Amino acid sequence: MRNNDRFRDENPPRNKSNPPRTGAGRSVPPARRVDAPEDGGRPYRGNGGHAPHGGRPSTMPYKPREGGRPSTMPMRPGRGPEPRALPERPQRPVPGPARPPRPVPARPPMPSMPPAHAQSMMLEIETPDISNMLVGRNPIREALKAGKPVEKLVVSAGDLSGAAMDIIRMAREAGVVVQTVDRTRLDQVYPAHQGMIAYIAQADYVSLEDLLAVAASKGEEPFLVLLDGITDPHNLGAIIRSAECAGAHGVVIPERRSAGLTPACAKAAAGALSHIGVARVKNLNRAIEELQAAGVWTVAAALDGEDAFAADFTGPIALVVGSEGDGISPLTLQKCDRRVTLPMFGKLDSLNASVAAGILLYQVVRARTGRQ
Predict the structure, then answer these.
(1) Which end of the chain has less neighbouring CB within 10 Å, N or C?
(2) What DSSP line would sit under 125-171, residue for residue?
(3) What does residue 328 show for φ and ψ, rounded to 5 degrees?
(4) How far is residue 160's CA from residue 193's CA, in Å, rounded to a whole number?
(5) CA distance 362 to 367
């Protein structure tokens, strides 16, 4: 075996792919590999005795890189450049003490439900009442022809046809208040309105002469209540109720700046509209002049007047009551014959209109009955 190895080392096998070159009269030795040593020994075997590139002969001797950029991973542990160190991952900050929860304010207790009559009043204010409403041109026209008590006619602003103008003319001839508003307001009340909405009164209106005739038929001196600027239907209904209980012959309201005989008013009156008449006049000042011409004294409820508990309420009399905010208008106040006031013993300086009217009504009753 040793002889064979020695023979193989001294006479290496010839590469079949590279036969000796032949020339003219001479032979050319085969090309020597680049990686072969100069002394003719065994070829260079780097990388642990294995030929580089999978055993293929290379044109350049294998030599590891030196001084270059280190590779990310070495070819074998313990050999080649050291791997590049990764930066350390930043540490998360240690959380501090937990924030205390935000205090939740305690909810106030639910208010108790108002009584039944208060609930009904709230519903009437928040939602429009359509029980006395007439919508459409034909129903409104027929109501005017039949002589029904129409409270008010609300007409949309803009161009109106001939039929709508005829209805407006009929309403004005019947003494109905005609009010012109923007079309969007009618849309909010009732979308399919055809340009006009009418409100029917809960009772028929009477004239001022009818009220005086009622007093004459009973053989009594006239006892009336005139209201100036009472726009709340609940106050109007309460005053009508108090007037009927005190034995008054009627209530007078103006066409403008006053509530009408709406369902809310009729409910607050509690049936009094069936027993007492309500007259609606165009001008309250003119009505005062007519009453004065008929011998009726007009007494106004004001802040600067004589004491109502010491005043004389005998004879034919008409009480004039104004609204809570504005009171009686200056011109109407000048038309009145006398002024009375209710003394205040608290920090407020006025009463509700319906309450003040009720007190004055029974002052008249006490004066007429002779009770102290």
Answers:
(1) C
(2) HHS---TTEEESHHHHHHHHHTT--EEEEEEESS---HHHHHHHHHH
(3) -80, 140
(4) 13
(5) 8
Q: What is the dihedral of CA 241, 245, 250, 256, to 10 degrees?
A: -20
- Residue linked to tokens 């209805």: 167
Q: pLDDT category, 291, cuts 50, 70, 90?
A: very high
Rounded CA-CA distance 339/302 in Å is 6
Three-class secondary structure of residue 52 per DSSP? coil
- Where is 298: in which H helix or E strand? strand 297-307
What's the CA gap between 236 and 243, in Å, rounded? 11
Distance CA 356, CA 321 (A): 8
| Bridge-based pairing state of the strands 277-281 and 250-254 | parallel
Amino acid identity, position 147 = G
Show the tokens assigned to 257: 């700046």
* Encoded tokens for 15: 């590469």
Which has the closest alpha carbon to 231: 155, 125, 81, 335?
125
Query: What's the mean pLDDT when you consider all of the chain?
Result: 76
Count Cβ neighbours within 10 Å for each residue of 117-139 and write b for 16 or more, e otherwise.
eeeebeebeeeeeeebbbbbbee
170-222 pLDDT, tens per residue?
A: 888 888 888 888 888 888 887 777 888 888 888 888 999 999 999 999 999 99
Helix (H, G, I), strand (E, B) or coil at 231: coil
Q: CA-CA distance, 188 to 185, in Å (whole number)? A: 5
pTM of the model: 0.59
Query: Which of 66, 96, 99 is CA-nearest to residue 81?
Result: 66
For 157-179, what is each residue's pLDDT tens digit? 876 777 888 888 888 888 888 88
Q: What is the DSSP string of 214-230?
A: HHHHHT---EEEEEES-
Strand partners, 150: 200
